């Protein structure tokens, strides 16, 4: 009896979390997948098992090649933002984590600075994005300062409601997701390995490339998954900072939901999920994140 209880104990411990994931994660995904095959009109939605919504999402895309259809351009725009934001957050996150782990000697100071990086979480995403508007607008602080020092003769329009402002907002929102996992990985690096590299004559860049980065790749992968997942599905940041003029996969899905076109919105959501999963699968082919768990 005791052996049986001990054998089933791990399953009972995991059961509450498994039930929560089943109800709030797996079940909604299954419902979304099912709805993506339903049919709809301007006033009704009918259960069915057809692929019309997927065909509508990519209507005439293959026939229009080599020109890109609207759907392909939208997904390419989303991937472009994702790649740019990922690269910038990776550089910033890695730099901050490196500074905290290898340059800050006091544990108390390291803890304080690490907590400071979480300050953006203290306010909502919308407030943080809106805070950029008085800075980047035509009459904003940045343009007024540039005009006052004579660097420009007229306000810069591309600072706000542009690709630049979208990338800036997404980097602002998501850098912390890259900092924390990399910081966690770097903090586990044995400092004697770094000292040994220097003792054998390795330069700072050689030590960074051959010792620190390989030992931090698990944190880099986890941070990348966080950033890519958030950016690929984002529609609020792109809508506010892009002036509702920049297309993304998330914006398309939002527009279809607002128009009560739930089946085709579900089809686009399934396609977007498949793309994100393929990106994550590619990352996991190179890095085993189970070492960090």
UniProtKB/TrEMBL annotation:
Any Pfam family matching the protein: BPD_transp_1
Compartments it resides in: Cell membrane
Domain of life: Bacteria
InterPro entries for this protein: MetI-like (IPR000515), MetI-like_sf (IPR035906)
Leader sequence segment: none
Coiled-coil positions: none
Keyword Endoplasmic reticulum: no
Domain ABC transmembrane type-1 as annotated: residue spans: 75-283
Keywords in alphabetical order: Cell membrane, Membrane, Transmembrane, Transmembrane helix, Transport
Topology term for the membrane: Multi-pass membrane protein
Transmembrane regions: 12-40, 83-104, 111-133, 158-183, 220-242, 262-284
Statement: the UniProt record of this protein carries the keyword Transmembrane: yes
Family listed: Belongs to the binding-protein-dependent transport system permease family. CysTW subfamily.
Protein name: ABC transporter permease
Organism: Kaistia terrae
């Amino acid at each position: 009896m005791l052996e049986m209880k001990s054998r089933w104990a791990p399953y009972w411990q995991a059961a509450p979390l498994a039930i929560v994931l089943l109800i709030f994660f797996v079940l909604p995904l299954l419902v979304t997948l099912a709805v993506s095959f339903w049919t709809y009109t301007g006033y009704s939605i009918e259960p069915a098992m057809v692929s019309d919504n997927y065909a509508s999402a990519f209507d005439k895309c293959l026939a229009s090649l080599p020109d890109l259809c609207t759907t392909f351009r939208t997904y390419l725009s989303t991937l472009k933002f994702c790649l740019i934001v990922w690269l910038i957050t990776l550089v910033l996150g890695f730099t901050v984590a490196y500074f905290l782990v290898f340059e800050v000697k006091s544990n108390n100071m390291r803890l304080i600075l690490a907590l400071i990086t979480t300050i953006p979480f203290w306010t909502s995403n919308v407030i943080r994005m809106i805070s950029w508007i008085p800075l980047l607008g035509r009459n904003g602080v940045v343009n007024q300062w540039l005009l006052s020092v004579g660097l420009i003769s007229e306000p810069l329009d591309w600072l706000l409601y542009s690709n630049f402002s979208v990338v800036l907002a997404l980097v602002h929102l998501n850098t912390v997701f890259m900092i924390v996992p990399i910081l966690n990985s770097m903090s586990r690096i044995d400092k004697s390995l770094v000292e040994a590299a220097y003792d054998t004559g390795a330069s700072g860049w050689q030590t960074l490339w051959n010792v620190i980065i390989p030992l931090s790749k698990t944190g880099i992968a986890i941070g990348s998954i966080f950033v890519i997942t958030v950016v690929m599905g984002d529609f609020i940041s792109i809508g506010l900072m892009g002036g509702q003029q920049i297309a993304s996969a998330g914006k398309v899905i939002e527009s279809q939901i607002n128009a009560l076109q739930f089946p085709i919105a579900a089809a686009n959501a399934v396609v977007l999920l498949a793309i994100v999963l393929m990106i994550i699968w590619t990352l996991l082919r190179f890095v085993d994140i189970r070492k960090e768990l």
